[in-house]
Structures are given as structure tokens and as C-alpha cells.
């Protein structure tokens, strides 16, 4: 399976639960008309990304990074790369890169969220991301490490998110938690 095949499968098999999710899925399906180009940050200003909602097994804590460019707290994530085998592996790679957690600490990766969001001018050519959210679990809350892309990495209680969390994150996290039951 190619990365594009993985993205197509993640998007087309995702089951929207409300009107906003139906609109998001329609945006993603429409973007697939661009074929392989939707996987790369160039030439299109709107493209697919993958992010990881890193939760402890008890679903009491979420791991967030303070994004250097955006100046907000958010789940780890970013652009797809040519050597990513799947959307899930891209999200896992981003989680490892941005949090310093070893891959063997991250379990149960699966797609749980589709989110189309606009980006500020600080993101250059990129005008919006079609982000495929993947949930991954850890046993406990292992100590993270700050990366070059972040100023801080911390676990937060899911019911006490920090000030400065990216706009719309609370709703995305609530949707992820609802999908997990």
C-alpha cells in the first residue's frame, strides 16, 4: 500500500458523526482529486498532514507540544514525508520527533479525526492543512524531550488544558475521546 493509498483509506473509511465532520470529510475527499500532489507541501497551498493525539492508557492525560512558529499548545504533527509508509506511521514519526518518546512506548495507532484548518502567514506557502488525527497510547506518562520544533513538551490532564492551546483543539480532543468510547 502506498502513502496515497493509506490516506485514501483513512479518509474514505472515516465515519462522520455530525455535520461539521461531514463537511471536513468532503473537503478531504475533494482534495484527493489532486492525487500525489496533496501529499506534499508544494505545489498546493492546502495539503494533507498527520498528527498524533498521544494519550495515556487511562485517557486522563494528553501530551502537547508548544509550537515554535504557531505560538500555541497542540498535539505533535506535521507534513507527510516520502518515506512514510502510512498515515499512521507519519503520525508516529511526528510524535517521536516532537516529543522524544521512543517508538516502543507508543501503541495502538488508529485514525480518529479529520480536521481542515487555516494557517497564519508564519507558515509560509502553506495556507491550510487537511490534518488526519491518529490516536496513540502510552503506559503511564513517560518523560518527553523538547525538540527543535517546540519550546516545551508536557502532559496535561484532558480536563485541564493549558492557556494558549490552539484554537479548536478542545473540540478535536473531545471528538477523539468520544470516538474512543
Automatic annotation (TrEMBL):
Gene3D superfamilies: Nucleoside Triphosphate Pyrophosphohydrolase
Pfam families associated with the record: NUDIX
CDD domains: NUDIX_Hydrolase
TM annotation in the entry: none
Domain called Nudix hydrolase: residue spans: 45-178
InterPro entries the UniProt entry points to: NUDIX_hydrolase-like_dom_sf, NUDIX_hydrolase_dom
Family: Belongs to the Nudix hydrolase family.
Protein name according to UniProt: NUDIX domain-containing protein
Species this protein is from: Arthrobacter horti
Amino acid at each position: 500500500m502506498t502513502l496515497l493509498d493509506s490516506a485514501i483509506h483513512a479518509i474514505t473509511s472515516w465515519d462522520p458523526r455530525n455535520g461539521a465532520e461531514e463537511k471536513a470529510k468532503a473537503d478531504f475527499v475533494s482534495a484527493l482529486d489532486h492525487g500525489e500532489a496533496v501529499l506534499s507541501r508544494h505545489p498546493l497551498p492546502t495539503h494533507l498532514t498527520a498528527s498524533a493525539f498521544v494519550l495515556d492508557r487511562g485517557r486522563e492525560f494528553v501530551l502537547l507540544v508548544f509550537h515554535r512558529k504557531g505560538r500555541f499548545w497542540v498535539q505533535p504533527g506535521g507534513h507527510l514525508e516520502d518515506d512514510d509508509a502510512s498515515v499512521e506511521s507519519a503520525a508516529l514519526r511526528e510524535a517521536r520527533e516532537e516529543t522524544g518518546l521512543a517508538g516502543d512506548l507508543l501503541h495502538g495507532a488508529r485514525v480518529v479525526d479529520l480536521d481542515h484548518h487555516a494557517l497564519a502567514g508564519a507558515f509560509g506557502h502553506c495556507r491550510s492543512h487537511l490534518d488526519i488525527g491518529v490516536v496513540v497510547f502510552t503506559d503511564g506518562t513517560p518523560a518527553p524531550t523538547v525538540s527543535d520544533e517546540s519550546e516545551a513538551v508536557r502532559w496535561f490532564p484532558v480536563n485541564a488544558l493549558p492557556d494558549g492551546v490552539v484554537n479548536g483543539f478542545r473540540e478535536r480532543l473531545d471528538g477523539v475521546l468520544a470516538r474512543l468510547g
